[in-house]
Design brief:
four-stranded mixed beta sheet; Immunoglobulin-like; mainly beta; five-stranded mixed beta sheet; 14% helix
Amino acid sequence: MRVRIVSVIALTFLAACGSDSSGVTPPGSNKTVDIFTIGDTFSPTFTSLSVGDTARWNFSGGSDGQGHNVRFNPRTADSPSDINVLKTGTAVRVFTAKGTYNYVCDVHPGMNAQIVVQ
């Protein structure tokens, strides 16, 4: 009987300590999504976020070594601030309102992407 009680307690403890490996972000939890500059493209080119989530851009020099920037186009009252040209490093922006946010790199025409906040 004593062994059985210890076993039940041990199983209960292990179940309580288990982690959620489903990869699903619980409601109300903010997440960070990484966006990379690979060559002269943003990757991914489409990102879906929830209000309060963060986009983190990871910059590399580009094919010509000039770096990249992020300019939201068109500008709206809810658009986060633009990101100046960076050759390396990261920059983050938190999205506080629902909407579609298109952005471009002014250094490399045709380099564009989109974030949809739901």
